[in-house]
Amino acid sequence: MSDSTIAFIGGGNMARSLIGGLIAHGTPPARIRVADPDADQRETLAARLGVTVTASNSEAVTGADVVVLAVKPAHIKTVADELASQLRAQASLTISIAAGVRETDISRWLGGGVPVVRCMPNTPSLLQSGMTALYANEHVSQAHRSLSETMLQAVGEIEWIADEGLMDAVTAVSGSGPAYFFLVMEAMEAAGAELGLDPASARRLTLATALGAARMANDSDEDPATLRQRVTSPGGTTEAATKALETGDIHAVFQRALATATERARELGDQLGNQ
After folding, report:
1. CATH classification number, 175-265, choose in 3.40.250.10, 1.10.3730.10, 3.40.50.12780, 1.10.287.1260
2. What are the beta bridge partners of residue 93?
3. pLDDT tens digits for range 63-119
4. Tens of pLDDT along 165-179?
């Protein structure tokens, strides 16, 4: 990425995370431009990251190899309409990190013929521990794919999705997923405190256990079901607890939750596409 000029439209939290990750991985700050209407935001970005800042979207993308659309989903169409002719003329790779906005709609707003990669990062990307799914349209070359991978790997893991229709399921699993784990942690903390633990101790025990379990699963070649069985002794406390969870049909609960999230993602995509 050291030879590529990258323009960010929008300088919010996710953009700052990506920029920080890129710089940490060797991209010179001088190769990064950020357009943002907020003067304080621009001043902070320039001071902390050393990037070039401007209030003009057009100025930011002029001559850029990669343009990252990092504005709120409701503003994507306005930005696309403004930059359409410029991006078509430059054939810049356009990467969208706006949740729920479909590649088909972005391409339509840009007038077609532009290489577009739609990304679905999640909030742990702010800590360089994210998971991002990517979908590319037919104008995206292998070189564009490599650029996209390098950018998003700066904030975590990536997964290419061949069918954009599956991005709604991705949103349900990884996009919204951190909240599910936070909910489980919340419940465990509360249960521990109810059993007599000091709330601070219940929190520390819960968080350390969650982190350790995630690391074990991530570092293992075995699936979660096998790992669970290995730590569940017959007649022991773990078996008693998991049976209580299964009595509540935890698998069905998660299936309903993710199906509901997927359907809501479709609805939001329809709404955003009808702007």
Report:
1. 1.10.3730.10
2. 66
3. 999 999 999 999 999 999 999 999 999 999 999 999 899 999 999 999 999 999 999
4. 999 999 999 999 999
Determine the residue type at 89. Answer: A
Which DSSP string do the residues of 174-216 spell out, in sequence order? IISHHHHHHHHHHHHHHHHHHTT--HHHHHHHHHHHHHHHHHH
Return the amino acid letter for 30: A
45-49 long-range contacts, Cβ below 8 Å, gap at least 24?
45/11, 45/16, 45/19, 49/16, 49/19, 49/20, 49/23
Q: Which CATH number is 6-167's, of 3.40.50.720, 2.60.40.10, 3.90.950.20, 3.40.1160.10?
A: 3.40.50.720
Q: What is the pTM of this model?
A: 0.90
Tens digits of residue pLDDT in 150-204? 999 999 999 999 999 999 999 999 999 999 999 999 999 999 999 999 999 999 9
Provide the edge-to-edge strand list for the sheet that holds 130-136: 52-54, 32-35, 6-9, 66-69, 93-96, 116-120, 130-136, 156-160
Q: Which amino acid is at 141?
A: S
